[in-house]
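Final report, results section. Input specification for complex C-07:
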Amino acid sequence: MKLSSMLGDRFRETPADCQIISQIYMIRGGYMKQVANGIYSLYTPARRIVRKIENIIREEMDAVDGQEVLFPVVMPADLWRESGRYDSIGSELARFKDRGGNDMVLGMTHEEASVQLVRGTPKPESAFPFMIYQIQTKFRDEPRARGGLIRVREFTMKDAYSFHTSQADLEEYYARCYHAYERIFARCGVPEVVAVKSDSGMMGGNISHEFMLLTDIGEDTIVTCPACGYRSNMEAADCVVKNEKVGSAPLTKVATPGQKTIEEVCTFLNSVPERSVKAVVYQENLTDKYIVVFLRGDLEVNETKLRNFVGCEIHPAEVEEGHGIVKGFIGPVNFTGDARVLFDKSLDGTDNMICGANEIDCHYTGLDIERDLKIESFCDVAKTYAGAICPVCGKPEIQISRGVEVGNIFQLGTKYSHSMGLQYQTKDGGFADVIMGCYGIGVGRLCASVCEVRHDDYGPIWPITIAPWQVHLCAMRADKPEVKEAADQLYDALQQAGVEVIYDDRPVSAGVMFSDADLLGVPVRVIVSPKTLGRGAIDLAARDKSFRRDVPVESACEEISATVREMLSAINNVE
RNA sequence: CGAGGUGUAGCGCAGUUUGGUAGCGCGUUUGGUUCGGGACCAAAAGGUCGCAGGUUCAAAUCCUGUCACCUCGACCA
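Structure output:
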């Protein structure tokens, strides 16, 4: 490819709409152009990167016996009614009618389609397991797209579905996919992607992992323990705290006029949040029934864990009069409000605590949880925090960071096979629901994520396995016939040798040439100029500045090819 | 969906308060001089000022409506 004829302008100034590094470089570098909110067209460089990522994914999916298929983008609503998701999913599922007035949907994921493809006469047990996957466009009408390709409405995704006849078989295959994912991310040049335990939603007991690239622009909060390697999405992270008794005191009602928040009350009573009981009120979405959560005053509620615990959708409450809930003074002692009451385990074993007295302007001091309350069981709905105790190794070294979810793997169980009638024939002639797993990778998001962690002040530094080209050849002073001739020859030779090369044959100044090359981020840079030719050489350098050397013109093609091969194998040779 | 912001040339912006018929930088085109980190000189092209309606002799500017985009929040199979 010659740069002189390549579409996509590269420019110096950062467009006002761009917020994050990957978005800035991919817009400024002529990789893509926004069409609408969260919808982009890709120019050739981005298309080539994405295609290479897809091919790496293909190889690894094929290596775990995947069968590539292709589902439709448009599906009839009836298929989604079978699983119940036509009604349970909100407006992020794009719905429309075809000319016949039939309800249709745009695929945001393809569990339904995969079951539809696979079902029919129940197959014998011996036909299992198998896995199908596709790499295809998804559309999710996100309430708020942002950050270039990190969070979009239309995107390319690899989604895979595996089918099993036993939980043990699913788990075995799940482990193979987990490993395949590690290989995929390593081969894409981001071996630092880590798997974290993730929230499995309300389906209970199912295991799932998210593959996270840790970076500050990430939208997910990741909990890690440096001592033992424990990793979890905040949504799924246990919160462990240690309480020490400070000495019993009588339960005493005290006047706290106008002191409503934890901070106010603690300041007023000369105490600390850890020695107080916080009440947070939620409502069930469907019934508006109140849920009062009591937890230690210094902690916050993890709404995902709470949602899973109560088993339905919830939202922060707007407390109205007449339910026995005294806003600002809610406490567990003599609480008579019309609400479901939960006690977080952060309160377990506490004594001498401050809590609301369920009366305006009154709190209790000296609350001893064991002595003063009859609590049948504690739940775990608090958000963990930096310095909290690791639920695995017990060391108080929990760290909090941000991550981008570039992939996930999920043990689905029988949710879709059961509702949509996908069964297999057992050896004794009976029928049973097929057990499923699903496995996703956001291709465009992975591309942007790599850019987030592989760049310098001038542009992306693409790992050679996914770089749009392997070699960026600059003919510096292309107006000089000897330069043009040497560069043309090298360009031809490299292509003959199977090297992917972008050739900057434009008669532009060195500054322009280098800036554009930096924005394209091609890992190997070759410069042919009057200077280098004067030495009978070309200049061979790495985009990441890890090497730079003269190579004789005669052996240039050979040496460049060898360098490319070395760089490729350095990344591709993963366990 | 809630709050805030912005729409003027491919990109970045000024002009809007106080109405007078659109400008700057980058980029682009042409010619010339330069040439290893976004060169210089000269000339040129490019905009129904988001859209619709209204007020006015006159609207980028004032009024009404609408759409789009951005940020924060809510949401996220």
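The mean pLDDT of chain A is 93. Chain A has three domains: 14-226+400-451, 252-372, 469-572. This concludes the modelling results for the funded period.
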